[in-house]
Design goal:
Strand content: 25-35%
Structural class: alpha+beta
Order of helices and strands: HHEEHEHEEEEE
Largest sheet: 4 strands, antiparallel
Oligomer: single chain
Radius of gyration: 19 Å
Number of domains: 1
Number of helices: 4
Length: 177
């Protein structure tokens, strides 16, 4: 065989051996790693930025919708590295409606990531925001959140309702910074 073909075959063998099996506990850790092609910050053509004045004070909430689909953990990483922010947390119906409308204008996908995670605890579900803010509002679609295992949360761009989605699914996302 030619040396180039041997090198390709060797690399293919190494690549497939390095991926954990789907049931392996390392899968969650691997999902936190950002592949090199996804590590770049979004191009301006892949984003829509907007600001919202805080009615209670002088601060302004800034958001950016990224249309390049990422899994939940990569989306968090991009929010932190590229915008010094985090996936959006939502604490009111009016903010939920605003983000839903902006996301619908920005992407042709039906869902976008927001910064909520759910996990079953006995017969209940524990919900939390990745930015550690207080869980004081939710807008779940009927039948959600799912109770079978840990899920990440998406905002539906059609009706504004939230859904439990596997964290490995690739969706557009909303960063808050």
């Amino acid at each position: 065989m030619q040396p180039c073909l041997l090198l390709v075959l060797a690399l293919l063998g190494t690549a497939s051996a390095s991926h954990p099996a789907p049931d392996s506990p390392e899968v969650d850790e691997a999902a936190l790693e950002v592949p090199e092609e996804d590590a770049r910050c979004p191009l301006q053509s892949e984003t829509r930025a907007f600001s919202v004045a805080n009615p209670l004070g002088a601060s302004t909430f800034r958001y950016v919708i990224i249309t390049r689909c990422q899994n939940f953990h990569n989306a968090q990483h991009i929010c932190a590295r590229c915008y010094r922010g985090r996936l959006a947390s939502i604490h009111s119906y009016s903010r939920n409606s605003l983000l839903q409308r902006q996301a619908r204008l920005s992407t042709n996908r039906g869902q976008v990531w927001i910064g909520a995670i759910t996990q079953p605890v006995g017969r209940n579900v524990r919900c939390w925001w990745t930015d550690q803010s207080r869980w004081n509002y939710s807008y779940w679609l009927q039948g959600y959140p799912l109770r079978s295992h840990l899920y990440c949360t998406s905002l539906c761009t059609n009706n504004g309702r939230w859904r439990s989605v596997g964290c490995q699914v690739r969706l557009p996302f909303i960063c808050e910074y």
